[in-house]
Structure formats: structure tokens, C-alpha cells
Amino acid sequence: EIESAIVGVEGVAEAAVVGGEHDVKGEAVYAYVITEDGYEESEELREAIVEGVEDAIGPIARPEQVIFTPELPKTRSGKIMRRLLEDIANEDELGDTSTLRNPDVVSDIQRKVQGD
């Protein structure tokens, strides 16, 4: 439901949501978002995503972090590899990436999350 709420926001093409560790809450929502053509990542879009989730589901589902990315890690058959997104959110060692359509996307997302 969180992904549906995010994709319902104008300017969002695709989203994947995972749970990640959080020092205070125990677990938090991390959203990885691809913007639609013609939209750029911005603080306004980030705020619209958070508000869209809160309006649709409630504050409990509020994303702790919204990470904009040009691509999500997908298998060759098109399935999103949420396990890898969880590993990135938790700063864990990554599992097997050999089945990914584009393995480079994982390091790109890691750099964004780490602020490099």
C-alpha cells in the first residue's frame, strides 16, 4: 500500500519500499523512487511523497528516507530485488547481484544513500 500511495503522487513513475533498521524506532520505512520524465528530484517532490503516504495510510507509514534513483535493481525478468534495497538501507554487506539486469545500479544507489 505504501508503494501505491507513493506512485499516486504526481511526478513519481515507480517506487520500491523496504523496512530498515532505525536507532530510535527500531524499524523505519525507506522509499526508493524513480521520477517520471520531465520531473527532477527535489525537496518539494520529497515532501509531496511523504504527505501522500501520510494522507493515504497515516503517519505510521511515513518514509524515514526517500531516495531518488534513475533505476531500481531488477532481475532480468523485471522483478525488483527488495532484499538488496534492504541491505543498502541497513548498510549491510550486499548479497548476490549476479541475477541483476544492471548490477551497476546498486553501487549508484549506495552512493546516493551514503551521500557521496
Which features characterize this protein?
116 residues; alpha+beta; 3-stranded mixed β-sheet
Q: Could you please describe the fold and organization of this structure?
A:
With 116 residues, the protein is of the alpha+beta class. It has one domain: GMP Synthetase, Chain A, domain 3 (2-Layer Sandwich), CATH 3.30.300.30. It has helices at 2-7, 43-56, 82-89, 104-114, and strands at residues 12-22, 26-35, 63-68. Helix 3 packs parallel to helix 4 (104-114). The model has no long low-confidence stretch (mean pLDDT 92).
What CATH calls the topology is GMP Synthetase, Chain A, domain 3
Question: What is the percentage of strand-forming residues?
Answer: 15-25%
Shape: globular
How does CATH name the architecture?
2-Layer Sandwich
Major sheet: size, sense and barrel closure? 3 strands, mixed
SSE run: HEEHEHH
List low-pLDDT spans.
none
Helix tally? 4
First-last Cα distance:
31 Å
- Spatial strand order of the main sheet: 1-2-3
Total strand segments: 3
Structural category is alpha+beta
For the record, what is the CATH homologous superfamily label?
A: ANL, C-terminal domain
CATH class call: Alpha Beta
Q: Whole-number average pLDDT?
A: 92
